[in-house]
Amino acid sequence: MKKSLLLLLLGLTAFAPAEDVRHSILANPASPYFVDFAHYPKADPRLPVGVFDSGTGGLTVLNAIVQYDEHNNQSGADGADGKPDFASEDMIYLADQANMPYGNYPGVGKTDLLLEHILKCAQFLLGSRYYADGPRTDKKPIKAMVIACNTATAYGFSSIVDLLKQAPSDLKVIGVIDAGSRAALSSFRADEDGSIGIFATAGTVSSNGYVTSIEKLRKQMGYTGQLQTYSQGGVGLAESIDEEPDFIDHKARSVRKNYRGPSVDPSLLAYYRFDQTDGKMLCEGDCLQMNASENYARYHIVSLVEQMRKTPGARPLKALILGCTHYPYVQKTIAQTLDELRAEDRYKGLIADRVVLIDPSVNTARELYRYLYDHKLQNTQGSLDNAEFYISVPNPELKGVQLEANGGRFTYDYKYGRAAGQDLAYVRNVPFSRANISEDVAARLRSQIPVVYRLIQHFDESSPKTAYLKPADRL
After folding, report:
1. Disulfide-capable partner of 209 in 154, 228, 339, 428 (CB 3.0 to 4.6 Å)?
2. What's the pTM?
3. Is 447 left (phi over 0), alpha (psi -120 to 50) or beta?
4. Where do the domains of the chain lie, and which CATH numbers do they carry?
């Protein structure tokens, strides 16, 4: 398509929902979202790989990438050599913390606004702009993009691919849903019967992305067994992991009015086996408000198995996809809950002796490696120590912005009350620091993904992009 025609078409659609930001990215040099694809570097192995998620959950995907070792670094032959396959790659990570949780947008009819957020994340990785002690334009572009978010993959993958085709650009985009589906199917023999559980955000579940992907791949891979799928939307779990105040408040000791988590079924309290110590459940008579991510995980796993119990002819659960990048943080609790439920007469025969917990991140890392290797885009001069970490925070200068009392986050009503198509700079993407990462989140990262945490610390302490930080703001 000729450039003039492209501009005309973009101009005609500029006022449709989510079209403004596409127009800005492709055709408006005056916009802060503009990407100059005419001069975008191509096939340059020295460029970083870009990864984005709706919050810190995607760091589990980055963790799988930076620790991935299935090949010889010299020859590319299969087989680990004790050195991470991406050791010489530069990485850029963005957590769209200000706009998370993504999984709630479809439920309030705001999929068009969700798509805007996703496209702006993609633009950030492609572009050069960020905010430190002021606006900066020295961020590198990327050579490949990983959508480390199941909801963003479900609702934005095809739109990002289409945007790049219009650019035009052959930049590779990798999502996590097909990777997770392949891994789940690989847990079965081709003629084996059983059930696959899909534990994801409500938005990912409502998109039907995993069910569609599993069915597509099942046919392609020649599976003939009777495979059933059961989906559970994990409302509140990702939010509690990322310390969203509407879902968790560590200081609370009584039932809260602004609690937005699920309602607990009192008749199932014996099966939830909630941890009720230290305010992890909030009680008024019965303990009906969850106040710990582990309890959210327990609630949803019981709900998933209850769904199977009520389905005639349900086959045993043999694989469970952790269809949100936050969920591996509570993988131990998920496994323990399944073990406990397996022993209950109420759920007899519904849970296989061994349930494979599928973290799609490893398969995502494998797909990224294969792409870089096949296209001769592996970096031999870079280093994981060059990794950069950014997080979105509310833009306080935007007219009409509404923040929580502490000023750190959008109010719930403002976050989900905004309208698509306005192309507003709701957020600033800034480097990770103590100012935007709570101690509880930092402690979780330190203990569960220490390699990535070390990279974040290195960026925080050594990068020119964070030289403005005060000592008290460093991780």
Report:
1. 154
2. 0.86
3. alpha
4. 3-176+362-473 (3.40.50.1860), 179-359 (3.40.50.1860)
